[in-house]
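Re: [help] complex structure
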Amino acid sequence: METRPWLRTARARAQVRLWSIFGEPLWIIVNMGFPIFSSLAFSLLYLSIGAGSYVGFAVLGGVMVAFWGNVLWSMASNFNWDKQEGLFDIYLTSPASITALLVGMAAGGILATAPTAGIVTVLGWLLFHPVVSPSWPAVVLTFGLTLVALYALGMTLSSLYLVYGREAETMNNVIQEPVSMLSGMYFPSIGAFSPFPFALQVAASLIPLTIGMDALRKSLFFGQGVEGLWLDLFLLADLAVAMLIASAVSLDALERKGRRDGTISVRIR
Amino acid sequence: MNPSSSNVSVEAQDLRREFKTKAEPVVALDGVSLRVREGEVFGVLGPNGAGKTTTIRILSTLLLPTSGSARVMGFDVASEPEKVRHVINMASGAEKAGYDFISAKRNLWFFSQLYGLAPSVAEERISELSEMLGLTKYLDRKFYALSTGYRQRATIARAFINDPKVVFLDEPTIGLDVMTARSIREFLRDQARKNGKTIMLATHNMAEVEAICDRVAIIDRGKIIASGTPESLKRSLGAPALVMEVSPPPKDFDFLTSVPGVKGFTSATDEERGLSNVQVVVESDRAAAAASESVGKQGLKVVASWRKEATLEEVFVALVGRGFKEREEQGGD
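Output below.
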């Protein structure tokens, strides 16, 4: 695999995402709606039950739910849409690396979601003054690793959704809320304060977002440093690598199967 | 022209492709062999469902053959797809092939990057191709805002963005207005003549084949039933077709098949005028006279009749006994 064409492909795909999002300002506003309002709702809930010191959990949840929404709707479903429109054929008949396209899609997605995440943070800060006690190196490292693991999950889903065809959107609807709940987007879903039974916590830990959210809360609100979070970071890195490998392997297998069975590039029109 | 005497760009040997279905396997290609020379515009002509798209998909590495082999620029499409992909490109008239919310130019730039083109080379190619295809004025328009014709021009530009040696096109002018279709055909012909591109075109548009193809293979139910230059195929019919307007419209014209020298026919009914129009492919003038006579014997009146120079559709009719439309109604493959 040649490095320069790989990087050009990834960069171009990221660029397309940014042009698409920032070329249509209405999309930015639409994308902000859910994270802002869900964050607002949970913040108010914390305040109304007299747990105002935890309002930061809800603000953080709003930030991360923006990325999770982007992973689901603009990353996981993307190849399936591309397939329906005939774009996937173009990718496959070119020498471009499909993984490079996914990496570009992820990088573009992160950058395109950053304004939403930023606005949720600023609004949350201005409205609720959450109490933070950050260990910045740990916050930055955890946040970065969580995004990598989360978008790696998106890459894996993207390849799986190619198999499910038009049911991808239904799949998104099916998993969006359960994953938000299990991963503890707005409250701790694993550890001593989790409302879930142990078995469910173990299952939830397989979602990269769960470990990421937990580690982010520990580092941002309770000042835990990298040394105290090494297990979380190690697990996050493991999950990210596992997802990336799963994505590459499944795409490769899917392409071979598709060429054999004639299922890889079925167009709706 | 003998394809074996020149450099061969595309070569297929006994290609067969089956698709599994719940009922029984469907044979989409049944022993297709062909050779396309460098710099040639080669048409694969046939009704819908004949196997044209399957052929293109195998040659462009999207599909594996069930058996048989194919090579593009010397690379095996089944075992060396990565090498094939460096020297080809493809486009389909049915594809949307672009991101709606970015401009045509940015779309073309994106696709150029799939081939790793350096930015300056990509710019140059976009500007050159847009100029040739009359797209320059519309490059900054968002893709969704382009008319069907300009979107297809952009699609064709995309198919040449990497300066490919072989381009596979599937119904590239389907649904386009006459002027756009003509300008795309001229572009394709120039790319083959002046730049030595090999263009393989799957189409059911006979006018397109006659306008730009050096050679054509006629395909029906997964088999190539004839190939050669459009002129040689038409000449092979021997006599001009007989066209008759018949009143009242009969249930069918199947009685014509028993007339000696009749190779096949196509018919259509004009409800408004209360007439049937039947085109009969005949091997001689005597057969034409016999066909006309047989209509009278059925108690039908020949309102008007004339002879018509053969087109590729008549060649198809002569080979399978029916026209494209009837073949598609029969279920193609």
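Chain A touches chain B through 33 residues (CB under 8 Å).
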